[in-house]
Design brief:
The complex is a heterotrimer of chains A (264), B (288) and C (259).
Chain A: E1 10-21, E2 29-40, E3 44-48, H1 55-62, E4 70-75, E5 78-79, H2 80-85, E6 89-92, H3 104-114, H4 119-132, H5 148-160, E7 166-170, H6 178-195, E8 198-202, H7 206-212, E9 215-220, E10 225-231, H8 245-263
Parallel strand pairs in A: 3-8, 3-9, 6-7, 7-8
Antiparallel strand pairs in A: 1-2, 1-4, 4-5, 9-10
Chain B: H1 2-34, H2 57-63, E1 67-70, E2 73-76, H3 77-112, H4 114-127, H5 132-145, H6 150-174, H7 179-187, H8 192-230, H9 236-245, H10 251-281
Antiparallel strand pairs in B: 1-2
Chain C: H1 2-29, H2 40-49, H3 51-85, H4 87-101, H5 109-116, H6 122-145, H7 149-157, H8 162-198, H9 206-215, H10 219-247
Classes of the chains: A alpha/beta (264), B mainly alpha (288), C mainly alpha (259).
Chain lengths: 264, 288, 259
């Protein structure tokens, strides 16, 4: 856990949120039901659950990419919509979603460009960001010339470029191989420590959730509900932590919660 | 890599061209030996092989350097055809540019309003079943009455053929970004127009260039056919029509003018390919 | 499901009716001269009055367009199958076909007239065949060639021969490409038939009705003839779509978008 976790402002606060897709039609789907969730500033929260449990939908409610059918979603005390308009969060998707036609710097500068930053400011910032994700020498490359892990680091740099206080990640390492994935997890924790950003992280990997999070939120499917919240405290994590009995205990706890979900 | 591929394509084209000439001359030679019958049979060949119907390939080539009287001056045939082609090229280029503008505007319009897409897309498809070519005389009468030169009418005909592939492929291209790319722009609270400019239009380029290639060819077809159907005074279409009428005197000239039309088509096609390379592929070769 | 049908039929119908009404209204209100743009209603009445002539002319043009279209498709598909069998042929012919396809093929019309004579309609059919042949050949050859290597490997693992691979993998893969070229070629065949007409051949066809009526200032008749030609093009385009649906039942939901 980080030192500044005593700041008690809620980064995200969700009350009694429901989400229904295609209401009043043959293919109506109740995606989320009665969600209550609080994310403290500086927290690293993982959302985990079997496919169809609505974890990505929940993330999109926070991002105001979807609107809840019922209930309310607040981000830093504002409506999710206002938070999006104020650019309070950055988002990272499973597929890096870098634009093929922009080189790496230009991709990182995209949100800054949209905010109307000057060229000099943009270049200065993208330089810092490339340093943060350790890709300085690739700034003139195009996304297709990079490996999947490097692309995902660029995507994180892009999301953090305008210094949002909240980072929303939708299975960001889902398409990476296991070795790259573990490396990226350590990198992400380093960035998290350096920037002090709050993270909400969607994953379907048990060890990933246990390794990264201060709190793992387990969801059950059809309709998506919060089954349980598991607090994890592994201290400063390195690759050695993966062989730590504490880590094993945390994964077991998450796994058992998921089994309970499967059993209904 | 691409350079080698281009060389290879050029080489195969050359070989095919040589083979084609050999086939042409070979067919002609066989026909001359057998009095236009399949060897050893009584069945006639589909195309007779006399010098009027099938001039020697060499004669057609030589025709390019022959002098032709055009008005008061005499010019080598090649220069004469190049001048006509330049005129047709200008008509096609105007038609192409207008067609691209109209096509893109339609695509953006249909992207913006779903009702417009549902309502207009079928009619855009239907529009291509209207043989506007047949409308050419009316289009040109209209242009003449407005006091415009014939070039305007002909360019409009080229526009009509051009806008269609651009509108249809443009719409597909604008709709091509992944939903997560669109969500990303939404997460930046980006406006509809900046999503269009920063995401959708660049993403549409790989869809647009094949459409531009088709449109380029069609603009030349439109220009030539327009010239033929309304009887302009100049242009390649006019030259083809003139030489077709005087075929019995100079068969080689008709062939030369048709070859010039093909070269113009290839030239325009090549231009679009070059533009594509400049805009999309340059410096983007994957290093692996 | 029923709603879906309605949602896809209603907008074009509305746009069509509004368009016709605006056309009629604009011509009346702005007093647009008949030779520029006759009213839809006067075109309609000419369509009825001159039905005999128009029907005959459309029929004659239709025969050339349809026969040329069918022969062109047949030749295009046959050559694509042959070149697919022999790699050398494929490498040599495809760039050549793409080059020819980039040229104004209709310009060949006067040469075909010399080759095949003007007594029958074959010269005109040959233009249609040439115009149809190239897009069909290029697209079908592409579809036969660009199959996923995994699918070929799968078939090899079943110890299948070339013939089975052609039937089970290559032809199904080529169908969408072929269907696309059909959509392109069907309306093109009508245009080619009319253009060929300008260079000669029997003069009782639709292109001639258009030019001669325009020449005698009977613009509403010319437009009625254009409507007939469009109807012909639309009929062929529609047949291409129906063929596509029938040959690829697994693609029925083709127009449902993912966003």
């Amino acid at each position: 856990m980080r030192e500044n976790s005593e700041i008690l402002e809620e980064a995200v606060s969700i009350r009694a949120a429901d989400k229904v897709f295609n209401p009043d039609s043959d293919n109506e789907v109740q995606a989320l039901l009665g969600i209550d969730l609080d994310v403290k500033e500086g927290d690293f929260i993982s959302l985990i659950g079997p496919s169809g449990c609505g974890k990505s939908t929940l993330l999109r409610l926070i991002a105001d990419l979807l609107t809840p059918t019922e209930g309310e979603v607040k981000v830093f005390g504002k409506t999710a919509n206002q938070a999006r308009l104020d650019q309070d969060y950055g988002m990272v998707f499973q597929h890096s979603g870098l634009f093929d036609w922009r080189d790496i710097s230009a991709n990182i500068e995209l949100p800054l460009e949209l905010k109307g930053w000057s060229k000099a400011d943009r270049q200065a910032r993208s330089g810092e960001m490339l340093e943060l994700v350790r890709l300085e020498e690739f700034k003139d490359h195009y996304p297709r010339q990079l490996s999947g892990g490097m692309q995902q680091r660029v995507s994180i740099a892009r999301a953090l470029s305008f210094e949002p206080r909240l980072l929303l990640m939708d299975e960001p390492f889902g398409a990476l191989d296991e070795m790259t994935r573990e490396h990226m997890q350590v990198e992400l924790l380093r960035i998290w420590r350096e920037t002090g950003t709050t993270v909400v992280f969607v994953t379907h990997s048990i060890p990933e959730a246990a390794f990264l999070s201060s709190k793992v939120v387990v969801l059950s499917p059809r309709p998506g509900r919060i089954h349980s919240e598991i607090t994890v405290d592994l201290g400063d994590r390195t690759d050695e932590t993966r062989e730590d009995p504490e880590f094993f205990k945390a994964t077991t706890e998450v796994r058992e919660a998921l089994r309970a979900v499967e059993a209904g | 890599m691409t350079k080698r591929k281009a060389l290879r394509t050029a080489f195969t084209l050359l070989v095919t061209l040589v083979l084609f000439v050999l086939l042409w001359e070979g067919y002609k030679w066989v026909g001359q030996q057998t009095d236009d019958h399949w060897p050893g049979t009584q069945f006639g060949l589909p195309v007779s092989t006399d010098d009027l119907t099938m001039p020697h390939a060499g004669d057609i080539f030589n025709e390019l350097t022959d002098e032709i009287r055009a008005g008061r001056e005499t010019l080598p045939m090649a220069v004469y055809l190049a001048k006509k082609a330049a005129f047709t090229f200008l008509e096609a280029a105007i038609g192409f540019s207008l067609g691209v503008i109209v096509g893109l505007m339609l695509a953006i319009f249909m992207l913006r309003w779903r009702f417009a897409e549902r309502g207009f897309l079928p009619w855009i498809n239907v529009s291509q079943t209207v043989p506007l070519i047949a409308l050419a005389p009316i289009v040109v009468t209209w242009a003449r009455l407005q006091g415009y030169p014939d070039m305007v009418g002909i360019s409009l005909i080229a526009t009509y053929l051009t806008f269609f592939p651009v509108a249809v492929s443009g719409l597909r291209g604008l709709q091509s970004p992944d939903s997560s790319d669109v969500e990303l722009m939404r997460s930046y609270a980006a406006s509809w127009s900046s999503t269009l400019i920063k995401l959708r239009l660049p993403a549409a380029r790989p869809f647009l260039f094949p459409a531009f290639k088709l449109a380029a060819t069609l603009s030349v077809v439109g220009a030539i056919v327009g010239e033929i159907s309304i009887g302009t005074k100049t242009g390649l279409g006019r030259a083809i029509l003139d030489f077709a009428q005087r075929y019995s005197v100079w068969p080689e000239r008709l062939y030369a003018s048709v070859i010039a039309a093909s070269l113009l088509g290839l030239f325009v096609f090549g231009l679009v390919n070059a533009a594509e390379w400049l805009v999309i592929k340059k410096g983007r070769e994957v290093l692996k | 499901m029923k709603n879906l049908r309605l949602a896809s039929v209603l907008p074009p119908v509305l746009v069509g009716i509004t368009g016709l009404a605006m056309w009629e209204g604009a011509v009346t209100v702005f007093k647009i001269k008949e030779f520029l743009l006759p009213k839809p209603s006067s075109i309609w009445s000419q369509l009825i009055d001159e039905w005999g002539v128009l029907r005959h002319a459309t029929w004659e043009t239709g025969k050339i367009a349809v026969s040329g279209l069918l022969i062109g498709i047949l030749l295009g598909v046959l050559l694509a199958l042959i070149t697919n069998r022999f790699k050398v042929l494929n490498d040599g012919l495809t760039p050549f076909a793409i080059a020819i396809n980039a040229t104004p093929i209709v310009a060949l019309a006067p040469i075909f007239n010399v080759w095949f004579g003007l007594t029958g309609t074959f010269s005109n059919q040959a233009v249609v065949i040439a115009v149809v042949f190239f897009p069909v050949f290029i697209n079908t050859a592409k579809g036969l060639n660009e199959v996923h290597p995994n699918e070929i490997e799968l078939m090899h693992s079943y110890a299948s021969g070339d013939w089975t691979i052609l039937r089970e993998v290559r032809i199904p893969n080529a169908l969408p490409f072929f269907a696309n070229s059909l959509r392109l070629a069907a309306p093109l065949s009508v245009i080619a038939a009319i253009v060929a007409e300008y260079f000669g051949g029997p003069q009782d066809r639709i292109g001639n009705v258009i030019t001669s009526s325009a020449g005698f200032a009977k613009y509403d008749v010319a437009w009625a003839a254009i409507a007939m030609a469009s109807g012909l093009g639309l009929l062929l385009f529609g047949s291409a779509l129906v063929t596509e649906r029938l040959s690829m039942p697994w693609r029925i939901s083709g127009d449902i978008k993912d966003n």
